[in-house]
Amino acid sequence: MTLETVIGLEVHVELSTASKMFCRCPVTFGDAPNTHVCPVCLGLPGALPVPNREAVERTVRLGLMLGSTIGETIRFDRKNYYYPDLPKSYQISQLDAPVATGGRLLLPDGSEVRIVRVHLEEDAGKLEHEDGRAWVDYNRSGVPLVEIVSAPDIRTPAQARLYWETLGRLVAYAGISDVRMEEGSMRADANISRHVPGTPLGPRTEIKNMNSFRALERALAYEEERQTRLILAGERVSQETRGWNEETGETVEQRSKEESQDYRYFPEPDLGPIRLDPGWVEGLRASLPELPTRRLEALVAMGLDRELAELITERRSVADFHQAAVAAGAPPVLAAQWITGEVQRHVRQGLAPLGEGAFTPAMLAELLQLLQSGRVTAAVAKEVLPLAMAGKGTPGEIVQARNLSPIEDLSAVRASCERVIAAHPGPVQDYRGGKDRAIQFLVGQVMRETRGRARPQEVEAILRGLLGP
Amino acid sequence: MEREEIDHIARLCRLELTDAEAERLRGDLERILEHGRRLGALELEGLQPSPLIPVMELEGLRADVARPGLDPGQVAAIAPRQRAGRIEVPPVAGH
Fold first, then answer.
1. How far apart are CA A108 and CA A310, in angstroms?
2. Are the beta carbons of A150 and A189 closer than 8 angstroms?
3. In the CATH hierarchy, which fold is given to the domain comprising A410-467?
4. Is residue B80 part of a domain?
5. Can you tell me whether residue A204 is helix, strand or coil?
6. In this complex, is the C-beta atom of A112 within 8 Å of any C-beta atom belonging to chain B?
7. B42 near A CB under 8 A
8. Residue B29 sits in a domain of what CATH number?
């Protein structure tokens, strides 16, 4: 019996706006509990919500990037359920007039997943249980939350992961969220069922609240296998909600959830419908950034291998920097290698991230041109980079001010080679005894003595000449 | 209204009801449903639903500017109990 897996994802993304969805409390993470709360996000009687325009605009932008149809009049609805992290006992969400409907997401493997809807709602607080008691931090209560619902077009756990990763990248590109997974700013629920192709879909299980790509893939793989086992044994898969336990690597049945009708949705009486002016929507469409998947393909066409292109397009700031460096004359592949290698190494060690410090794309282009034309050696280029990143000048200025041009006077290089040969009899003996690799040690010593300004190929040729056949 | 429905609603509200309470609520709910049925019987053919609040334009929404919320003393004053800033709430049944 061949079974097909059918997966749909609901991804929740917290928007990184300055203020919350319906009040002016700041959106923060990691601050002392209940320090960013007010009558609105605490659900105190009489408090009235006022929607955040920026949150609506960002959601529209995401919808446009997914090719969705933007609603002309959108509406908020109350979704009622009792849970103490939700102080009003209802969540302001959207039922049948969401910000956006339809659309699709193109994945890097060429597959496509249709989007059902994109809607805007508010996040709940953070509930913790301890010694049989419950405690809430409402700082997160009311943070704008976008939900992106996919069609059940996904067929494997790996594709589900790829979909989520691709969507996360798009969200970051659209500048609507900073997508900090470790802070829970992007979470997913997954629906999964198995059936024989050509027959009706099987009963589905919903796995709630996963906060990492890895957890999603593992939970779906586990669930795929569990359902297969039941089906092959002739048992029924029951339609239920399951939770993923990271430690045991299993999904476990959770308390039965409310059905849609139990939420008693009704139009939010405190908020009128919001008209989205079609002219304004078209203006936003015209200002959208290029899709990351398209940029990735463009980079591959420039000669980057796929892995390198993925690293570059992972973050928009990096992709933009690379694009600008290439426009300023940097060779695309070399620029990508330097950005993902040397530049990132210095950023990790504390220099300003790309686009934030003094280092401009034109400077990277200049440095790589100096390198390619032989006006600096690779060793010197690596030395110049952190100086330029630290704001010590342009690469050309640094090379000139510190006298870092290659040594053109070969007799000086030869003199350095002679000194190194005299100082290292051991490796010299090894080389003469047939250990060819020993020459690299000697080249390294000459490079050190010349502060990287000798050309390694020239050094090696001179050394071999001096050491004889 | 069936007792089963009363029990289902009580579960959704995380309420435990005695038989007497369930009976009293059955009466209340019946009256609410009856009111709904009377509204449902109104002749509304050809009428457009009117929003409770006029349609808002985007420009009418709030600009994304944050300002401080309540100070911790105010929060403490309305929270029944706090521990390290977190507010105690009734534990969730079935957790």
1. 9
2. no
3. Arc Repressor Mutant, subunit A (1.10.10)
4. no
5. coil
6. no
7. no
8. 1.10.20
